């Protein structure tokens, strides 16, 4: 595959996308990157844009209480959403969401459930109890079906619970040349449906979903230095430009107002999923609506035809590779560490390709160097503690550039 991008995708998202569309964004930046604001620009900043005093993170490796690894179920063509017959049973597939499963789940569920309800079944079986299975199950209940989930593992044991917890709807979702332009339209439909649905989870007790500020501390302006994708990097599809109108864009902070002493500090707003509470909320909502859960492992597609339900939505995530012998599902390994929560740290930070996300169930620390190729094709789920400790060290360095304010 040719190398089409010289810059890491995370850095590109950081600098170009809208906050609603990805990790971070710069679409509506009043000052062009690299130009640098003059001191007088600080005086022009509206009072509500002045960053509040931030509490520093306790960036100490000994505070890492949890480190987990998970495999993104990546498909070059995008998620599998076709319909298949096995005997008398209709199987609607819904798996292969790469690094965007939480973000796109409601949109994918809407598409899968519409296909499953085509024959107006009274009962539906859902295989899988991760982000995709649960949202499919709840969406099917809302469409009027009685739903039973069958799964080997339930949240919080499923891989979904080991995700970062950010709205990242086009993270490793497809390859540009394999997925083709039609997938872009489908992706946009899924992203918009999901984004709308997430509004319903804001402001709830337990804070399953919330918006937080994110600060990106950069030494080299866009186009001058920074990280590179490795040689031969794949051309992962990027669609964030399609939904730039969904949320606020990021801004380059005037240097004297920036909480960190660095040439370029951007601030944006990002949607964050507090996965412990959000997962719990989904499970509770499903059960409260009369949902049933059966713990069961399937070893072959033919076993689905033995279920009492004749319409099945198949959401096995990375498990689809083994269950369906589907080698189009490629593992993309990812690791996150969690530091002991600090309720006073209510903002996210990106520095030297390390992400800090202030989740309430543990402050996420994630090394992102290597861009979208990081972990590609790697199914090793063994924890690498050194990686997380190093990432905490990078954050400690960021705080050596922190300007303490009252
Ligand atoms: C490090 C990391 C960070 C991520 N961060 C984000 C993020 O910030 N935002 C985002 O949107 N996405 C993120 N993702 C991606 C997201 O986590 C996945 O896309 C999503 O979890 C996939 O959900 P799923 O329900 O398809 O799979 P899973 O969570 O793996 O669920 C699969 C379900 O199917 C069941 N199952 C599988 N095989 C069988 C079988 N044979 N028989 C019975 N049951 C079976 C399992 O037990 C489980 O219940 C991240 C991924 C990783 C690895």
Keyphrases for this structure?
alpha/beta; eight-stranded mixed sheet; six-stranded mixed sheet; binds flavin-adenine dinucleotide; 8 helices; single chain; 406 residues
What can you see in these coordinates?
The protein is of the alpha/beta class and 406 residues long. Helices cover 24% and strands 22% of the residues.
- Structure annotation, total helices: 8
> What order do the strands of the largest sheet run in, or round the barrel if closed?
1-11-14-13-12-6-8-7
Order of helices and strands: HHEEEHEHEHEEEHEEHEEEEH
**How many β strands by DSSP?**
14
Mean pLDDT: 89
Structural class: alpha/beta
Low-confidence runs of at least 5 consecutive residues? 1-9, 15-37
Tell me the Rg in angstroms. Answer: 21 Å
Relative helix content:
10-25%
- Gross morphology: elongated
For the biggest sheet, the summary is:
8 strands, mixed
Ligand types = flavin-adenine dinucleotide
Q: What percent strand?
A: 15-25%
Distance separating the two termini: 52 Å
Concise summary:
This protein is α/β, with parallel strands linked by helices.
Topology:
Layout: H1 9-16, H2 39-44, E1 64-74, E2 83-86, E3 89-93, H3 101-116, E4 123-129, H4 131-142, E5 146-154, H5 176-198, E6 209-218, E7 251-252, E8 264-273, H6 275-288, E9 292-295, E10 311-314, H7 320-323, E11 330-339, E12 347-351, E13 354-357, E14 363-367, H8 385-399
Parallel strand pairs: 3-10, 4-5, 4-10, 5-9, 6-12
Antiparallel strand pairs: 1-11, 2-3, 6-8, 7-8, 11-14, 12-13, 13-14
The structure holds flavin-adenine dinucleotide (FAD).
């Amino acid at each position: 595959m040719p190398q089409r991008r010289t810059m890491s995708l995370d850095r590109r998202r950081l600098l170009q996308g809208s906050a609603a569309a990805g990790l971070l964004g710069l679409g509506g930046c009043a000052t062009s990157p690299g130009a640098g604001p003059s001191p007088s620009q600080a005086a022009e900043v509206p009072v509500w844009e002045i960053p509040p005093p931030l509490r520093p993170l306790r960036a100490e490796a000994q505070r890492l209480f949890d480190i987990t690894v998970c495999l993104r179920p990546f498909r070059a063509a995008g998620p599998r959403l076709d319909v298949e017959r096995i005997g008398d049973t209709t199987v609607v597939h819904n798996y292969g969401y790469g690094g965007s499963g939480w973000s796109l789940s409601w949109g994918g569920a809407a598409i899968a459930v519409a296909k499953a309800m085509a024959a107006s079944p009274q009962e539906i079986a859902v295989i899988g109890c991760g982000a995709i299975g649960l949202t499919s199950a709840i969406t099917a209940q809302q469409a009027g079906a009685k739903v039973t989930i069958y799964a080997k593992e339930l949240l919080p044991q499923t891989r979904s619970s080991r995700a970062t917890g950010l709205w990242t709807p086009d993270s490793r979702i497809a390859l540009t040349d394999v997925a083709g332009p039609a997938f872009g339209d489908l992706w946009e439909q899924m992203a918009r449906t999901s984004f709308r649905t997430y509004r319903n989870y804001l402001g709830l007790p337990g804070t399953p979903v919330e918006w937080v500020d994110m600060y990106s501390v950069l030494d080299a302006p866009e186009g001058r230095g920074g990280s590179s994708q490795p040689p031969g990097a794949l051309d992962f599809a990027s669609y964030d430009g399609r939904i730039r109108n969904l949320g606020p864009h990021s801004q380059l902070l005037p240097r004297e107002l920036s909480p960190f002493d660095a040439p370029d500090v951007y601030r944006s707003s990002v949607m964050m999923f507090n996965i412990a509470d959000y997962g719990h909320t989904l499970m509770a909502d499903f059960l409260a609506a009369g949902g049933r859960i059966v713990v069961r492992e399937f070893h072959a597609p033919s076993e689905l035809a033995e279920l009492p339900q004749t319409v099945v939505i198949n959401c096995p995530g990375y498990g689809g590779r083994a269950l369906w012998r589907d080698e189009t599902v490629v593992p993309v390994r990812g690791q996150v560490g969690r530091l002991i929560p600090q309720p006073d740290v209510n903002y996210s930070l990106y520095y030297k390709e390390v992400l800090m996300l202030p989740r309430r169930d543990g402050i996420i620390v994630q090394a992102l160097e290597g861009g979208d190729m990081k972990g590609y094709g790697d199914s090793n789920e063994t924890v690498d503690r050194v990686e997380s400790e190093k990432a905490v060290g990078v954050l400690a360095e960021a705080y050596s550039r922190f300007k303490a304010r009252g």
